[in-house]
Specification:
The complex is a heterodimer. Chain A is mainly alpha-helical. Chain A has helices at residues 2-8, 22-49, 53-58, 71-76, 82-87, 97-128, 134-143, 149-162, 169-177, 181-192, 196-204, 209-220, 222-238, 241-246, 255-264, 273-305. Chain A has a domain at 97-264: Orthogonal Bundle (MetI-like fold), CATH 1.10.3720. Chain B has 13 helices and 2 strands, in the order ααββααααααααααα. In chain B, a hairpin with a 7-residue loop joins β1 and β2. Classes of the chains: A mainly alpha, B mainly alpha. Chain A: Its main location: membrane.
Chain lengths: 308, 322
């Protein structure tokens, strides 16, 4: 198998004959081990989520789900009664992952849509409009890249509290809804490389610049916007520290925060591993699906331009 | 990322939204940001991002520095105390412990991650160009740190975890990975390697793409093996990219919080009380926002110093290619 795969690669060693060398065997073994370590936890989440807690304790090393059940998922989604949940090793804490799934979706969508729209607008102004102080302002934005996100969190929390937005989805979204220096920088790179003739042609047709931006430039930028959008979505979906500070109740609780609470609600008898893994899967699956749709494009953008 | 060079300058042709559109010409001043052509329009385009920048980035940065000189508990107005917080920090043994633990974490995390990412990147370049494998290595990055932490907490559980089942099956003693003072930090470091190594590998892979394949072909004609080519071609030419990726990952690594919060909560016995976790506790557990801000400033200073030193040492801005 190894030799065949090596010949089908396009660029590398086209001129060389495929040979099975000890080095290659070692290299493929290392690669296979890496893939196994990468993917095993995903399988283990599924296997655990589909098992009952009692069976898990009795057969910890069994590679297949033990005592197949959907109880873990029912518990995570709040579909079980408290008694039922406790009987199956849950805490009966009544977490409703439907709710958190919606909250996470709202927050990530708000952040992604506005951050990218506003960043793209600013990027266009930096790349294609002429105005006094442009390079100074851009330099300032770039300097923002140097401030670790974590540094702004405490003061931002104080601000969000003063604005009365603590424990709201808007409060979670607001700080990253307008821009990130990276998004502006990334989009500017793209707009700089759009041939000017494109704009000139539209101007000749009588279009104004606002119209050109929305009708010509944005559609042309759909590929980088898609990559940036998916990555921004994943980042906001996975964020934990900031939502942890801002949200206190179900109304603004996102998946990451809910998961950590679920994990902390340890029943006397031990963890509800089955329910916890089911909840984990619910939190992770949307991103896996999203990535599944756009994987090819995202992977090639990262691995050929080195985003971030 | 190069900008197309401009033709010789001509008179700027202005056009403002609403006036008769004219054919545009490129001129050098435009690239330098000179001219006042689109002032009003630019203001409109930049306004939302500018608002976000000022309110949620610049202002909190300045405010964070200010708060570090105050006593502030959120309920009453901040009270100026000068250097008190910093004096306290220097005398606080838990702060120093916390910094030590964080540095230990960063060394283990970055060490293992960089070597593994480099290995994966080179394998993806020299062994196979499979796009599917590149997608596979990225999948852990799609998980949150919280998910990664919880999954590994389960897989490394002393009694029921599959990791310890295998260890016990091989006849060794079970290891309390996250419950033991010596094991906890290395374990958390490796969990975070699992999540981030694929992404890092792809960034390095991007750097590898810039190395002309001819160089490998030529070296091969000269009889060089893969190992030799790695040290003689790949490493020297990848250095600038590697340097930038290192700076980025070190900064990220210093901010470790999520994984600690969901696996060990700083324990056992403060063994994983990383700086960010200690800062969070000071702010939200004890409402010492001033002291927490002072420690954040310290972290900011440490990170800036590391970035500067790394940048100088590794000559990150220069390339050996062409």
């Amino acid at each position: 198998m190894t030799a065949v795969t090596a010949t089908t690669t396009t660029k590398v060693r086209r001129t060389q004959r495929p040979r099975i060398t000890p080095g290659k065997v070692v290299a493929w073994t290392v690669m296979a081990a890496m893939v196994l370590i990468t993917l095993l936890p995903f399988y283990w989440i599924l296997r655990t989520a589909l098992s009952t807690n009692t069976a898990l304790a009795a057969h910890p090393g069994d590679p297949l789900p033990v005592d197949l059940t959907t109880g873990g998922f029912e518990r995570a989604l709040g579909l079980q009664s408290t008694e039922e949940a406790i009987a199956q090793g849950g805490s009966g804490g009544g977490l409703k992952f439907w709710r958190y799934l919606i909250n996470s979706t709202v927050v990530s969508t708000l952040i992604t849509v506005f951050q990218i729209l506003f960043s793209a607008m600013a990027a266009y102004a930096f790349a294609r409009l002429r105005w006094r102080g442009r390079d100074t302002v851009f330099g300032l934005f770039l300097a923002g890249l140097m401030v670790p996100t974590i540094f702004t969190l405490l003061p931002n929390f104080v601000l969000i509290k003063q604005l009365g937005l603590v424990d709201s989805l808007l409060g979670i979204s607001l700080p990253t809804m307008f821009m990130t220096p990276f998004a502006v920088f990334f989009m500017r790179q793209f707009f700089m490389n759009v041939p000017r003739e494109v704009e000139e042609a539209a101007l000749l047709d009588g279009a104004g610049k606002i119209r050109i931006f929305f009708r010509v430039m944005l559609p042309m930028a759909s590929a980088p916007i898609l990559t940036l959008g998916v990555l921004t979505y994943i980042t906001s979906w996975n964020d934990y520290f900031w939502p942890l500070m801002v949200s206190y109740s179900d109304s603004s609780r996102v998946l990451t925060v809910a998961l950590a609470i679920f994990r902390a609600q340890t029943p006397q008898s031990g963890y509800d591993w089955s329910g916890l893994m089911a909840a984990t899967l619910i939190a992770a699956l949307p991103m896996l699906v999203l990535f599944g749709f756009f994987a090819r494009r995202i992977v090639s953008t990262i691995s050929f331009t080195g985003i971030k | 990322m190069t900008v197309a060079s401009s033709p010789p300058s001509r008179l700027p042709v202005r056009d403002i939204e609403g006036t008769q559109p004219k054919p545009r010409t490129r001129e050098k001043r435009e690239r330098d940001g000179g001219g006042r052509g689109d002032g009003a329009l630019a203001a409109l385009f930049i306004a939302p991002a500018m608002l976000g920048f000022l309110v949620f980035l610049l202002w909190p940065t300045l405010r964070g520095i200010y708060l570090s000189f105050t006593r502030f508990n959120l309920l009453t107005p901040a009270e100026w105390v000068g250097l008190d917080n910093y004096v306290r920090m220097v005398k606080d043994p838990i702060f120093w412990d916390s910094l030590t633990v964080t540095v230990e974490y960063v060394f283990i995390n970055i060490g293992i991650q960089t070597v593994s990412a480099l290995a994966i990147a080179v394998l993806l370049q020299r062994l196979t160009q499979s796009a599917i494998l590149r997608g596979v290595v990225l999948t852990p990055y799609l998980m949150s740190n919280v998910v990664a932490g919880i999954v590994w907490l389960w897989m490394l559980d002393t009694q029921l975890g599959i990791g310890n089942e295998i260890i016990a099956g091989l006849g060794f003693d079970r290891i309390p990975f996250l419950a033991d003072e010596t094991w906890a930090i290395p374990t958390i470091a490796v969990i975070n390697v699992w999540r981030h190594v694929g992404y890092t590998a792809l960034l390095l892979f991007a750097g590898l793409q810039a190395i002309p394949n001819d160089m490998y072909e030529a070296a091969k004609v000269d009889g060089a093996g893969e190992w030799r080519m790695f040290w003689r071609i790949t490493m020297p030419l990848l250095r600038p990219v590697l340097a930038v990726v290192l700076i980025m990952t070190v900064i990220g690594s210093f901010q470790v919080f999520d994984t600690v919060a969901v696996t060990t909560a700083g324990g056992p016995a403060n063994a994983t009380n990383v700086l960010q976790y200690y800062i969070y506790g000071a702010a939200f557990g004890r409402f010492q926002f001033g002291y927490a801000s002072a420690m954040s400033v310290a972290l900011l200073v440490v990170l800036s110093a590391i970035t500067f030193v790394q940048y100088r040492l590794t000559r990150a801005g220069q390339t050996d290619l062409g």
